[in-house]
Specification:
disordered C terminus, 14 strands, alpha+beta, 31% helix, 14% strand
Length: 474
């Protein structure tokens, strides 16, 4: 048989599986039907490594019976305890509940209003007082400590009249304080709500559950886990243990601000929390009832969160059955010190890329212009020595009948020619033929450098033959 049972499978020869509900640290839970009576039950199958020996199974049965003897409507009834003969896996057949656990309640609806929180804690406090004050048949006080209180183990359902009813789950796996309680030393609570003495292997007492109540109240009121590592999905358990054992215990109002919680607890709640979550168990509240009474007084002036929606505000009626999911962590807002390390937005990245690209193009253009200027300054010398045919631009000449006007001293328009030499384009010098004619008509003047682009005096042109064909380059 595989680890996951399928609908229709029969377990322990008397429970027909209907559907999977949840999986946890102790085992897996199914909705099942008792074959003979057709009664609907919640079948919790314990992992084999949790109860390996027959002695451990007997101790487990004893603790399950003791949980039933608490005699409270807030503890699910246990109908059957045993071991499957084929898989050797122990199991519990319990009362089937329809509703939602507190972790799901806060995750979907937000923090609870203070009055609702007090109402639910009043039911939890009465149940814990009965368990912590349990007396066996011999008249010996044998406190039953739950030791794994957490939002997932607090279940909200309804009575027949529609009133909210809180059930405390997993009392069958509780620690019974006494010399015979050997099983529970191997069972550890959830690190997020585990007391200091559990993490440090100290003595477990009813005050262990008081510690958990303080952390649960902080979560229900703010929507955040008290331990910083609990609000990051990638934090290992070792970091949570480090906080539980040695980190400074900040008051809830300071911690809530650090976690960007939507609700900041009052100073009265800070004082109440400090008495619950104290590494010295002797300084905690003596009883759960006293703890809840002081909580009601501390929350009397606490503002009601506007975003809170609870089962208490829903009209009476059946609550749909929800399959609990693994506990999700609540993401807190990043502190201002790390905002600079966050990735830029897409628009910012595009703008930054555009600016960088423009800078590179501009720099490349400057480099090319500088190189072109350097080449141009050296090119005329190369042109003077360059062989090859020269194409000279045409300049019309004046006729003998035209009135000669002494041209003003002006910048000579250098005749631009194109030299074709092995596919290269060169700047050519002045038209030598016209320069020769000018020399014959007038005394020689200092020759204009062929490569000069500087201003020069243009002498008057002598009479010239009739205009030539511009396309005749003879």
């Amino acid at each position: 048989m595989s680890d996951r049972l399928r609908p229709g499978d029969v377990f322990a020869e008397r429970y027909r599986i209907e559907r999977f509900i949840a999986k946890g640290g102790f085992g897996v839970v199914y909705a099942a039907e008792q074959v003979d009576t057709e009664a609907k039950v919640a079948l919790k199958i314990i992992w084999s490594h949790v109860l390996e020996s027959d002695g451990a199974l007997e101790q487990f049965k004893q603790e399950a019976r003791l949980a039933s003897r608490v005699g409270s409507e807030h503890v699910p009834r246990v109908f059957d305890v045993g071991r499957d003969p084929y898989t050797e896996r122990p199991f519990l057949a319990m009362e089937f509940l329809e509703g939602v656990h507190f972790e799901e309640l806060v995750r979907t609806g937000g923090p609870l209003p203070p009055a609702t929180l007090v109402e639910y804690f009043s039911q939890i406090g009465r149940t814990l007082d009965r368990a912590h004050g349990y007396v066996d048949r011999d008249g010996v006080r044998r406190p039953i400590v739950h030791r794994d209180l957490k939002p997932e183990n607090l279940f909200l359902t309804r009575r027949d009249d529609g009133a909210p009813l809180v059930k405390i789950l997993d009392f069958g796996l509780a620690k019974m304080v006494g010399s015979a309680a050997t099983l529970s030393h191997d069972l550890k609570g959830t690190p997020l709500f585990m007391a200091f003495e559990q993490a440090s292997v100290g003595p477990v007492t009813p005050q262990t559950d008081i510690w958990a109540l303080g952390l649960i109240a902080f979560y229900l009121l703010t929507g955040r886990f008290y331990w910083l590592a609990g609000n990051s999905p990638d934090s290992p358990f070792t970091r949570i243990f480090t906080e539980v054992l040695s980190a400074p215990l900040e008051v809830p109002s300071v911690r809530a601000r650090a976690l960007s919680a939507p609700i900041i607890p009052s100073a009265d709640f800070d004082e109440w929390f400090t008495r619950c979550v104290n590494r010295d168990s002797s300084k905690r509240f003596e009883t759960a009832g006293e703890c809840v009474k002081e909580l009601a007084a501390a929350l009397a002036g606490q503002p009601v969160p506007a975003i809170a929606t609870t089962m208490a505000s829903v009209a009476p009626g059946p609550i749909p059955s929800l399959a609990p999911e693994p506990m999700a962590t609540v993401q807190s807002l990043p502190p201002s010190s790390v905002l600079g390390l966050l990735p830029e937005s897409t628009l910012a990245r595009r703008r930054s890329f555009g600016r960088r690209t423009a800078s590179v193009v501009f720099a490349a253009m400057l480099l090319l212009l500088s190189a072109a200027g350097l080449v141009a300054s050296q090119r005329p010398r190369a042109v003077a020595a360059a062989p090859g045919p020269v194409a000279t631009a045409f300049v019309p000449a004046t006729t003998s009948d035209e009135k000669r006007v002494e041209p003003p001293r002006a910048v000579a328009m250098t005749t631009v020619s194109v030299a074709l030499d092995a596919g290269s384009v060169h700047t050519v010098a002045l038209d030598k033929r016209r320069a020769h004619r000018a020399k014959a008509a007038k005394p020689a003047e200092p020759a204009v450098a062929e490569t000069a682009l500087a201003p020069a005096v243009v002498p008057p042109l002598p009479a010239a033959p009739p205009p030539q064909d511009p396309y005749d380059h003879r």
